Amino acid sequence: MFENLKIFSMASALAQHGATRQTVVAENIANADTPGYRARDVASFADSYASRPTTGLQATRPGHRFDGEASYSAAPREIFRPGAESPNGNNVSIENEIFAAAEASSDHRKALAVYRSALTVLRTSISGQS
To answer: pTM of this prediction?
Structure first.
């Protein structure tokens, strides 16, 4: 219902991005002792959101409500993170993973706060309260 409002779709996309990044960080930590494992990360939200796929839908009449914006349904692309290798060829740094997990958690909380605030504004405008 609210996916047609850009603020809601962007907040939802940021929350999805944060959750995906948390998953990738957890996989990195789980493989911290796996020989030859390469640490992965998720491309930044700005890059992922800007490069989201287009749907190919077009408004062909003035009454159509499609604004040409694609939804953010594709998973953010994963990238390999460079880093110093341990003797077994693994490059996972627990310190870097803790930092990445904190960033992902912050992004997720930020997205939920934006969503909650936008919902409050929408409810207030619908109810006519000032």
So the answer is: 0.72
